[in-house]
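Data deposition worksheet. Section B asks for the primary sequence of the deposited chain exactly as it was used as input, without tags or linkers unless they were present during the calculation. Section C holds the resulting structure in token form. Section D is free text for depositor observations; keep each observation to a single sentence. Incomplete worksheets are returned to the depositor.
Section A, Depositor: J.P.
Section B:
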Amino acid sequence: MLRLPAGTARRFAAHSYLALPGFLPPSGLTRLHTELTRLQADARRRDCAMNCMSGSPRHMSTIGGTALTAESPFVADLYRRPDLLALLSSVTGEPVTEPRDVPDRHVVNILHHPADTNGGHTDDSPYALLLFLEAPADPDDGGLLSTPRTPLHSPSLRTRRCTAATTRPATPTCCAQTPPRTVSAP
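Section C:
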């Protein structure tokens, strides 16, 4: 079972972000990297502007939940671990469950070209678990995740105050985000 220090729920409520170091042991990280390397050849390239999200750009390759469920039970099982769901439920103070919509349940986003971005957007689930396998060492080179500190009532994703967290290379980080939806901004 994952264990978190005292005050974790309070920090999550204040920042809408929670790092979960040690979520996967080194052997699990190696297995996840091997799985994703194998599946990367089937990723679909996405280059578009999301009109429903203030024209935010999206440039990346993706592997959707349907393909991951069929091709990688290991990845699918990570997101339904009872110890993880129980831990996140205790931190958030409400039940955290696996999303019902299989295509959006889990996704691999591959940002492997200069200027690739997931774009500023909201997700349909109130929480998201993010695993970073690789990230630039310098935040100026990318690897920045932003989450809203206020509800999403702003007409533009670019004007909302956010909490930023820099991802670290070769050290995956798991995060949960809330309310009421998740956001990652360029």
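Section D:
The chain has a mean pLDDT of 74.
Helices lie at 8-15, 26-39, 65-71, 73-78, 82-92, 102-105.
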